[in-house]
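To the wet lab folks,

You asked to see what we're planning to order before we commit. Fair enough. Below is the target structure as tokens, and below that is the sequence we designed to fit it. If anything looks off to you, flag it before the synthesis order goes out.
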């Protein structure tokens, strides 16, 4: 789909939101995102996913509010469902997902970044969840993922008070992990994705599952699973290759299995 461009850079899949002027989400692009991530999950040569926006001003401004202008609950229900499916599928991507925030990330545009594992923002980027300003709320994971990342206080400032953050403030509170110069987010994200390719894909999948497990239950439930998945890695070829390569002082050659 032209509005969601997919290309491959080595072991990294690059998704570019391309719906000018503000890279807004539509039902079609959300469906494409969901289906693309599902396909990437089956592609053993893909270890990382980078998502960015086309152009110099917007990462994404979220949903086109024209969709909700007539107050049709059926349309709202359908859009909320597909937003959830798309971003939850992204969150569950088996590899590492990185948002290269190259401009404004508003509403659903910030929520897609929140669904990623790591966020890199350009210095001029601004982030907000302004849905309450128009009588709505963030329905694609925003209330949950934002609070998890930055704490309840800052989540309430952004969602309940409509506070918009600069990239530097976002870095300060933990909303993004890195701030780079204008035009540098994509290169920084791709460089980080290259580091992912140095890791065992099987180990990365298991580690990501464990890290995110903490959101859903008590640590006492996650710790036995941590040990179980550690032992399970010994059924993989990558575990043998990783240890062997280290001991032989050579780069590993992963097979993702």
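Sequence we intend to order:
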């Amino acid at each position: 789909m032209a509005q969601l461009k997919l290309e491959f850079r080595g072991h990294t899949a690059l998704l570019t939101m391309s719906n000018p002027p503000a890279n807004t989400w539509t039902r079609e692009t959300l469906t494409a995102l969901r289906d693309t991530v599902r396909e990437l999950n089956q592609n053993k040569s893909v270890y990382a996913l980078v998502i960015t926006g086309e152009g110099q001003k917007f990462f994404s401004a979220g949903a086109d509010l024209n969709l909700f202008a007539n107050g049709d609950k059926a349309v709202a229900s359908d859009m909320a469902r597909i937003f959830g499916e798309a971003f939850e599928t992204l969150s569950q991507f088996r590899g590492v997902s990185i948002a290269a925030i190259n401009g404004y990330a508003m509403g659903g545009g910030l929520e897609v970044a929140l669904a990623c594992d790591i966020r890199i923002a350009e210095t001029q980027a601004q982030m907000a969840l302004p849905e309450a300003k128009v009588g709505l709320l963030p329905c694609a994971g925003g209330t949950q993922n934002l609070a998890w990342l930055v704490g309840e206080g800052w989540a309430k400032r952004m969602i309940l008070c409509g506070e918009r953050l600069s990239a530097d403030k976002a870095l300060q509170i933990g909303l993004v992990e890195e701030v780079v110069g204008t035009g540098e987010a994509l290169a920084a994200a791709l460089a980080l994705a290259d580091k992912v390719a140095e890791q065992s894909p099987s180990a990365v999948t298991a580690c990501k599952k464990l890290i995110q497990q903490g959101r859903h239950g008590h640590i006492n439930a996650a710790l036995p699973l941590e040990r179980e998945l550690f032992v399970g890695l010994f059924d993989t070829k990558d575990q043998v290759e990783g240890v062997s390569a280290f001991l032989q002082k050579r780069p590993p050659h992963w097979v993702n299995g």
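Structural context that might help your review: The chain has two domains: 4-196, 201-247. The mean pLDDT is 91.

Thanks,
Computational group
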